[in-house]
Each structure stands twice: as structure tokens, then as C-alpha cells.
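A quick aside before the break. I want you to see a complete sequence-to-structure record at least once, exactly as it would be stored in a machine-readable document. Don't worry about memorizing anything.
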Amino acid sequence: MRLRYALILSLSSAAVAAVLVAFDLERRIGDAGASSAGLPEAFAGVGTPYAVVLVAIAVANLASLLLLVTAFREERERAVLRASQTAGAAVRPASEPVLRGEQAPAFVPPPAAPPRTYAWGRLEEWSAASGKPFMELWNRSCVGLYQACPLPERIFEKLLNSDEFDPAGSFAAVDANGKLIGALWSLRQAPFEDEGYWWLESPGVMAALLVDPGLRRKGVGRALVAHAEFAALRQKRPRLFAGGLENFPHLVPGVPDQDHGTRVFYTALGYREVRRTCHMEADYRAYTPPQELIDREAQLREKGYAFAAAKPDDLAEFERFVERSSLTRKARRIERFRGEHDRFYLVRFHADIVGFIQVTPIDDFGHSGIHLIYFLREHRGAGLGSVLLVKAHELWRTMGAKGGSIWTYPEAAERFYRRAGFKTVQEWVVYAKDLPHAWSDPDFVNRYR
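That is the input. The structure line, written in C-alpha cells, reads:
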């Protein structure tokens, strides 16, 4: 049954039932003489008949609701199957079921693979042998970019050996002599696999797109992006990002906001800006908390709050706090506290832990960041977060970090982090492109339905 028919039936049933009740009530009031003295008797006498009418209305509306649910499912299935029909395309395999006697829609074939040979050379699948030439090209080409040149070999090896690195979507461009002149590294967001959100699940991420400066504007970058898009299509990835994973911020935070040429490049290829991210750093050696935060901490202490770095004997109390909190992966958080309590700063209210801040381990550049700030719901909005950001400076000093380094949105940077001594280092733009998958492709539909 069509969705609109079920909706009409539901509305009609409710309207008819309401009219019947109104007419019956009018008749009973009329029989009672329509006097103020007769109205109570009229309403008192409608108990049983009206109960029957109300049950009938409830049954009718429940049936209509079930029809609405069924119709919605059928409409959704039809919409999914109709979305990408293309005239003259191959027919879907006969093994795939057809909905309620309908003919199977046309099946959109995948696009043809881009060429591998060009005037400047050829494109090859990524291999381990391409790693060292790429590192040399990166350190030679990225002069002037913050924390981009030179990068130690361990930074590249960390990415290449990580679960996020996607060798099937990574390519190397070489000239006629076999010399590497460009490359594109692709990443994947492995934690989102099988989450069921097709608009977020398993997007591809283009990272470290690099072309030899002397060979730019010759189509090398376009060829690398075309092959990355084709690889993402084969992997049934619904979207491809240009930057976006911050696990490796020195390589893939996005496109620098002042890099007009690169932004024009992605825009010309059909990519659009989806978000911005901001890299901020703080130096605890040159930081003095503003008077506003000093006064806030004093006021919070007067209200019964206390702030202190975590100690090993706080473990039992922290376990009780985690169990009554809404935190996920509770066992893992307790284990982290057990082994790395020096990265936690606690806030108590009348001796009970009600929140904490956790900083990250020291990275390859000597900086630590903010892993998590959390409070029990009833203590949110009191201004504890700003005070704990100040306390993070004490943790970095104890750990021996050079300072703090965080990635956040520009709005949060202005509103929350500047008062805690953080200064913006670079703002990055993340681009994305929705890939032209066929919604009549059963493999894609079943994965992202």
C-alpha cells in the first residue's frame, strides 16, 4: 500500500470517529433537555457507550499506524531501488529478489578505470619500495609548512603501519625513468566500520597528496585523485575526504586555509568545504592564568569543589566514579587510570570525584594534548572545564612536555581555549565529495541501508 493511501486512511478514520462522538454527545445533551441541571446526568450516562467508541477509535488508529509503518518501508525500498536507474544499463542479477512483483530497476555499472599511463609517466599501486622516495620528496617539497619539513622517518612509519593506512587506495606517480614524482596516501576510518551510518561509515580520506614542485600543473595531482576516487568506489565508500583524520595531524589535518591554489584544485574537482579544524598550542612556561579564571577557581572552592592531580591511591574512588558515570568503555578508562594516573587531574565535590581532565601522551614533537574533559551531569555548566584546562598546564610540566597541542573547531578556539593559554597555529579546511554510487547496486544498498 502506498504511503499516501495509508496516511489518508489514518486521517479519515480519526475524523469519522470524532464526528460520531460529537453527534452522539449532542444527542445525549439534547435528550437531557440541554439545561445546566441536566448536563451532569447527560455526561454520567455516556460511560459505557463512550468507552466502546474510544476503544474503537484506538483500534482504528493502531491499525492505521501499522499500515503507515508497512507503507513507509515499502516506499523506502522503492525509493532506494529507483534512485539511480539508468536507461540502457545492465540488468541486476536474477538472484537478487524483486519487491512484490515489480520489475528490477536498471543496474548502474561502475565507471571505467582511469588510465595508468600519461605524458609525464605512469601511475602505480602503492608499494613498500615507494616509502623512502616519498619521504625524501616530502621533506624536499614541504619547506615553509608548519611541522611539515623535515619530518623524521618514524612519523611516516607510524602512519604506514597503522590500521588507518589504506594501501589499496594509495598510489605513486613515476616518470619514464621510474623516479617518484608524486604520491597520494589514502586512509580509512576503521573504527566506523559496520556502524550502520552510511553517511559517516567508512569514508575514504585522501592524505599527503604531494607532487614534485617542478612537475605541477601537468595533471599529476588530478590523476592521483581520480585513482583514489575509483579505489573508493570499488570499496563501496560513500564519501571521500581531503583531510579529516587528526590521528596524524602533521600529515593529514586538511588543506591550509591560506593555500588558495590547493583549495581551487579541490573545488574544480567537485569537492566542497565541509568543516574547518583549528590547531592550537600552549606554552605553560609563558602562561599566567587570567584573573577571571583565578577568581572562578576561588569561587568554586568556596562552594565545596577541590582540584588535585590524581595519585595512585585514587584508583578505587575513580572506579566508583566511572561506574556511576555515563562514560563508555569503562573498563578501558579504569585501566588507563591504573597505568597512567599522572595524566589525570581530578575535581571533587565534598570529597567525591565528580569530573576529571585527561591529557594525551607526549607526541613525536614533545607536545601533549587534551584527551578528555568529563563531569557528572549535575555539575556541568559550573565553569569547571576552564579551570581544569588551566590545571592541564601542571600535568604537562610534570610530564616534561614542551607544551600543549590540541585540535578543535574555530568556534571553540575563540570561546573556550584562548583563556587557557592556547594560541592558534593554523586553521585547516576539510573537503569532501559524495561518490556516485548506484543505489540499485545491492552490495552498496545492503551495506549502508
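Two observations worth writing down. Residues 3-82 form one domain. The CA atoms of residues 279 and 426 lie 5 Å apart. We'll return to this after the break.
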